[in-house]
């Protein structure tokens, strides 16, 4: 039996909890931000703001939820709303994150399989792939944490302190927990 076949992966509820934890951390971070910090431009061309990264995360969850609600259950991350108000006003984004948390928690049991739509611009077609809610939740955890790590770097540049676990993937947190419980002498180099 291969090592992958023997591994037990977290149930869909575990993936949901990872997403809800990330969304909650993000909501608390955003809810405490002043609009001027939320909209402050970073980078050589000034294209990066905390608000744009938060809006991008929200767009992806909205795409998932829209796909779960729509006939045919097709999730399309390319056809995102891109609501500029969510990247301008942190309290509006925090409210939307709270709504997403509530809807996501209520949606977990009603959709065992979904399809993922992807538009390829090399032709005029659209590829629709079979996927699952669990797979999409795993993707969204990684995607959200990736952008939260960027948010953490940007926030540090303007003196905003964040908890140590902000922007850290749950697998890394579990690794840190295991490492903390192993005596230093027993750790490999």
In short:
With 189 residues, the chain is mainly alpha-helical. It has eight helices and three strands.
Question: How is this structure best described in words?
Answer:
Mean pLDDT is 81; it is low at 1-10. The chain has a single domain (10-186), classed as Four Helix Bundle (Hemerythrin (Met), subunit A) (Up-down Bundle), CATH 1.20.120.450. A three-stranded mixed sheet has the order 1-2-3. It has helices at residues 3-6, 12-31, 35-38, 50-69, 84-88, 90-107, 133-157, 170-181; strands at 74-75, 113-119, 126-132. Helix 2 packs parallel to helix 7 (133-157) and helix 4 runs antiparallel to helix 7 (133-157). A hairpin with a 6-residue loop joins strand 2 (113-119) and strand 3 (126-132). The chain has eight helices and three strands; from the N terminus they run H-H-H-H-E-H-H-E-E-H-H. By secondary structure, the protein is mainly alpha-helical.
Itemize the secondary structure elements and their pairings:
Elements: H1 3-6, H2 12-31, H3 35-38, H4 50-69, E1 74-75, H5 84-88, H6 90-107, E2 113-119, E3 126-132, H7 133-157, H8 170-181
Helix pairs in contact: 2-6, 2-7, 4-6, 4-7
- Which superfamily, in CATH terms, is the homologous superfamily? dinb family like domain
The secondary-structure element order is HHHHEHHEEHH
**Cα shape:** globular
CATH class: Mainly Alpha
Secondary-structure class: mainly alpha
Task: Give the strand content.
Answer: 5-15%
* Helix content range: 55-70%
- The number of helical elements comes to 8
> Per CATH, which architecture?
Up-down Bundle
Radius of gyration from the alpha-carbon trace, in angstroms: 18 Å
Oligomeric nature of the chains: single chain
Q: Give the strand tally.
A: 3
Give the N-to-C terminal Cα separation: 29 Å
